[in-house]
Amino acid sequence: MISLRSALGIALFAAASAAQAQPVLNIYSARHYQTDEALYANFTKQTGIKINRLDGKEEELVERIKNEGASSPADVLITVDAARLEIADKAGLFQPVQSKLLESRIPANLRTPNWMAFSTRARVIAYNKASVNPDWVQTYEDLANPRLKGQVCVRSGSHPYNLSLGAAMLAHNGEAKTEEWARGVVANFARAPKGGDTDQLKAVAAGECGVAISNSYYLARLMRSTKPEDQEVVKKLAVVWPNQKTWGTHINVSGAGVVKTAPNREAAVKFLEYLASDEAQAYFADGNNEWPAVKTAKFKNPALDTLGDFRSDSLPIGQLAASTVQAQKVFDRAGWR
Ligand code: FE
Prior knowledge:
This protein has helices spanning 4-20, 36-47, 58-68, 82-90, 100-105, 160-173, 175-187, 197-205, 216-224, 228-236, 265-275, 278-286, 302-307, 317-322, 324-334, and strands at 24-29, 50-55, 76-80, 116-128, 152-153, 211-215, 237-240, 251-258, 291-292. It is 45% helix and 15% strand. The protein contains 15 helices and 9 strands. Helix 2 links the parallel strand 1 (24-29) and strand 2. Strands 1, 2, 3, 4, 5, 6, 7, 8 and 9 form a 9-stranded mixed β-sheet that branches. It binds fe (iii) ion.
């Protein structure tokens, strides 16, 4: 039998630990945008759950969670690109999340059982208005046409952004045609792949190449830049939403999942649900000039308004993610280094 005194003691202890036990949510994040500060602060304000954030490069964070094993403090992993989310998922780092709220807010093609998208970006074609006829660059397939010989600038074939595009090509055109396409693109290179997407855009503006593949937010970033040199780049470029008449423009995502060993699972799910709220969606997308995954979320972004509307590929993001390894093999054979 428990004496009154010890029962009281237990009650007091329980109250004290409840106050203390408000969990601290550990988020491993490969997003490094300044506006994300407000995103996290707002979650704490709403829920009282403090956030401890570890920023790092995608590959480093994945390695770290693997190495930490069962004792990892990580609750949530946030990263960009389906190819990278797939690497984390294949390594068994995520656990399934069931949430009616997430199911109702995030479109089905932007979710997998283990991770989901919170914003989208498009892989677009940018060309030099002075030297390239827009009719030549209306589709990704066009980039392999010999009339663009010596004109194409694009980053490495092993970069996740291109692997995800390759995965979309595989899904729509099959392996043989995708390999033929990759060979054609390589044959049209203006130079060996180097640098990031912004470097390709700058090279198009400088006339080193006529056309580049880039994620949409790099363009939006240049459009919103107050630097005169960036504005000069923007003036020389025009943008195409590729494949509007066929399967739609390839899109990718920023996404997150709950870590398999998450010490604070409940808080982690709450955080994902918070990311799907209207307010968080606006922060989350605006921070990197992306589109909210939640269709009804409002946002104010002059660059995105200028870029306008387009038809995106409706391929499920999980299917895309699963083919990125195959895409790498195809690109390797095609010599896309
Ligand atoms: Fe990027």
